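Hi both,

Apologies for the delay on this - the queue was longer than expected. I finally got the adenosine-5'-triphosphate-bound model through. Below you'll find the protein sequence and the ligand SMILES exactly as submitted, and right after that the structure tokens for the full complex including the ligand.
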Amino acid sequence: MHVTLDGVSVRHAGATLVRDLTLHARSGEVLGLVGPNGSGKSTALRCVYRAIRPSSGTVWLGNTRLEELSPRESARTVAAVTQGNEVGLDFTVAETVAMGRFPHPARPRDAADSVESLCRTAMLRTDIADLAGRGLLSLSGGQRQRVMIARALVQQPSVLVLDEPTNHLDVRHRISLLRYLRECGLTVLVALHDLNLAALCCDRIAVFGDGSVTSTGAPAEVLTPETVRRVFGVTPDVVPHPRTGVPQLHYALDPENTEGNDS
Ligand SMILES: Nc1ncnc2c1ncn2[C@@H]1O[C@H](COP(=O)(O)OP(=O)(O)OP(=O)(O)O)[C@@H](O)[C@H]1O
């Protein structure tokens, strides 16, 4: 299912968070959102998983306007793994993962097994099966992040939205998650700060700057030293990955590689 933000602006408390934003994720592709802090990536994603309503413009899920769907219908289509996964109540891991089924109609008793197996598969995929009985409050940040990813998978969405999903993850779990995103066949919108991971994982990358998208293209098209310098104020060396050829960025700490942020 393709996802389009068409001329979306979000205004809040007198400020414009994103302005006339146009973004298109093709069906089944992994679209990366990269950009400096505060450039509007999370706000754009929140519009897709319906945490905020655009002040103007339209979000399309396939050929349907998001606002035409009931919250339950859109939750069956879009699953989100957000940045803030603080939890208040100490549900167990297994209970939390099973909450991913909430948007779906209750299943007859004979289908309960398949829900259970869905949860088990998601927990195995995210490497949390051995934590099933643990309370969420007792988990590390990375373990909790993997629980939220498992819950999103159990939702069986067509569109997966992830806001900095690798933040708390160690390198093995980062690679495992990104490999899954590449292989899952879902339409994925993922905000990533690590441009090298974005290059490895994404079919295309949308570069954000100051509340709108400044360029979109394949990793090799947008992750150039010129674009990175223009958008982030840092000049990397960009070399092809020795085996896959995707661009990888190398940074040095020389002052001439960084513009005006030596505070
Ligand atoms: N609730 C809010 N009230 C006021 N301004 C907000 C609110 N949420 C976000 N903003 C502002 O909107 C702009 C875009 O923020 P957003 O979180 O979308 O950026 P981002 O690109 O995801 O940033 P980061 O990389 O730091 O996560 C920023 O200037 C931010 O300060």
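Main takeaway for now: The chain has one domain: 3-257.

I'll put the files on the shared drive as well.

H.
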